[in-house]
């Protein structure tokens, strides 16, 4: 995690193609008529503080002290403390001081938008998922990053080595440029899936459900053995369950709904929420609620970013035995169960179950990255800032540092590259050295969102449990990713026209999807619901995207 907007982002605890030559990033097929680099973005001549001949895997250190402002999201359970070392460590290594502008998790999307629109945003705007940048493209408030990636050798290297070129091409807007740089993942597996308590499922006769039909049968057996339970929960306002579950029905929903378009390759776009596949998904989860198998409260309880909506307590109390979550959520559940005297080893993250759409997962995707304020291009140290961000976001040594801290102090590496925390240091969020005096995340500021963006497989596995490594292997062995969603970048006028329509349509989809699943609206009113979407401008919305898709196909041919 895409992209869900940050408004529906999972909690802090929950976080947890075509090869091209490096130069190909600068010359990929354009989506529009104006794909050439902006000649005004000539960073080479704005080189105060920059390194000569900066290369991939090289330590970036500015030749003179620099400052860079950053929009910093504060999670409720993880405030920035005076004891945090991460900013001092970044400054020590790079000679760049980060200056924080704080925004709370609860309203980060709104405040970010206001700051950007007013021209008051900090230089660096992180925690950006693909699509988050689109509303700001036409205003000129953010920098076209595709014009300057020639100065970012680490980014270019891993796009090539990890076969991400086609996906990067998919970031391009109607003008042929992309305006955010994403977090790159060597291996893509769903961050969120189903977490089960294996002992209870084994007793039900369904050790590891591989399909949603098996999930339902297992839940029925568990309900029979534990009549007071509501054995399945979400905890993320329903958005997680229908996201990873929706793909199995051949649709997109929840966090993965995006612009709502499905198809577009062999047939015109359709709006996902009006398709038979979407209705089948809704009917399945509605049936679970009707049978008392799915906890309604977990679909509607607000998630303030501090956890999985109270589901951990239900795991500990023995009233819930399966729920949505990530590897971090699984640890949260395990810790709660252990504190209640249960067996924490029975908590397991399993691959998303298959369904009518097959044994599939969502399309390979990026993780969060960043945008830059267009003001950065006016700085005399523009080139140095690009080099710094390339090191921080994509340099292997920086990625390890933001995750683990200071080698020889907070962690050690053996000859095989295996990382262990030094005695006295813990990473409680991942159940490492629990009980040690200093937590490298909460006390020192490492392993925050800065560490999440770009990860090799080995780095991702270094802080996760053996069960997570098994999860990765299981997903790669049993599931196929869906093809990428068909690109259809909108031009400036189309973006303005689509904005209000997209919001009203998505609000109606979210509200009514939940109402149908909870049984608050009769499923016999489905056609009426589709009619409501049509009255809200669905035909015009579809026409916009179908036209944009046709234009994209013509320009790429």
Automatic annotation (TrEMBL):
TM regions (residue ranges): none
A Pfam family matched in the record: SBP_bac_1
Protein name per its UniProtKB record: Sugar ABC transporter substrate-binding protein
Lineage: Bacteria, Bacillati, Actinomycetota, Actinomycetes, Micrococcales
């Amino acid at each position: 995690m895409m992209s869900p907007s940050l408004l529906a982002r999972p909690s802090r605890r929950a976080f947890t193609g075509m090869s091209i030559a490096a130069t190909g990033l600068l010359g990929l097929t354009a989506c529009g008529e104006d794909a050439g680099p902006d000649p005004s973005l000539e960073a080479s001549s704005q080189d105060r503080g920059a390194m000569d001949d900066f290369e991939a895997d090289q330590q970036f250190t500015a030749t003179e002290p620099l400052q860079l402002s950053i929009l910093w999201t504060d999670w409720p359970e993880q405030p920035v403390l005076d004891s945090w070392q991460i900013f001092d460590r970044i400054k020590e290594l790079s000679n760049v001081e980060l200056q924080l502008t704080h925004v709370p998790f609860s309203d980060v999307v709104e405040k970010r938008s206001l700051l950007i629109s007013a021209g008051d945003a900090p230089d660096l705007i992180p925690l950006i998922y693909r699509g988050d940048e689109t509303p700001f493209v036409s205003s000129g408030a953010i920098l076209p990053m595709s014009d300057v990636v020639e100065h970012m050798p680490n980014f270019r290297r891993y796009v090539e080595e990890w076969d991400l070129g086609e996906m990067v091409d998919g970031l391009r807007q109607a003008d042929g440029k992309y305006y955010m740089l994403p977090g790159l993942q060597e291996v893509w597996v769903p961050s969120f899936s189903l977490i089960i308590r294996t002992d209870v499922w084994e007793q039900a006769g369904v050790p590891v459900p591989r399909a949603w039909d098996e999930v339902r049968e297992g839940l029925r057996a568990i309900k029979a053995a534990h009549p007071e339970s509501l054995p399945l929960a979400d905890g993320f306002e329903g958005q997680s369950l229908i996201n990873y579950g929706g793909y199995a029905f051949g649709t997109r929903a929840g966090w993965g709904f995006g612009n709502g378009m499905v198809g577009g390759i062999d047939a015109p776009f359709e709006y996902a929420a009006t398709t038979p596949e979407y209705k089948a998904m809704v009917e399945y989860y509605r049936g679970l609620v009707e049978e008392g198998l799915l906890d309604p409260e977990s679909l509607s309880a607000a998630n303030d970013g501090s956890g999985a909506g109270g589901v951990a307590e239900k795991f500990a109390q023995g009233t819930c035995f399966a729920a949505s979550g990530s590897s971090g959520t699984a640890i949260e559940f395990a810790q709660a169960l252990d504190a209640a005297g249960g067996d924490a080893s029975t908590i397991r993250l399993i691959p998303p179950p298959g369904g009518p759409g097959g044994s599939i997962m969502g399309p390979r995707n990026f993780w969060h990255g960043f945008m830059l304020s267009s003001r950065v291009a006016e700085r005399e140290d523009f080139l140095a800032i690009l080099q710094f961000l390339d090191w921080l976001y994509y340099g292997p040594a920086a990625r390890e540092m933001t995750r683990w801290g200071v080698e020889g102090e907070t962690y050690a590496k053996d000859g095989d590259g295996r990382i262990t925390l030094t005695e006295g240091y813990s990473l409680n969020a991942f159940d490492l050295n629990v009980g040690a005096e200093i937590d490298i995340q909460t006390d020192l500021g490492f392993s925050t969102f800065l560490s999440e963006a770009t990860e090799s497989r080995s780095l991702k596995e270094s802080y996760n449990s053996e069960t997570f490594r098994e999860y990765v292997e299981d997903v790669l062995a049993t599931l196929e990713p869906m093809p990428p969603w068909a690109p259809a970048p909108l031009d400036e006028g189309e973006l303005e026209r689509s904005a209000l329509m997209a919001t009203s349509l998505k609000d109606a989809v979210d509200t009514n999807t939940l109402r149908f699943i909870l049984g608050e609206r009769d499923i016999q009113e489905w056609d009426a619901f589709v009619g409501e979407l049509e009255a809200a401008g669905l035909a015009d919305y579809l026409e916009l995207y179908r036209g944009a898709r046709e234009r994209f196909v013509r320009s790429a041919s």
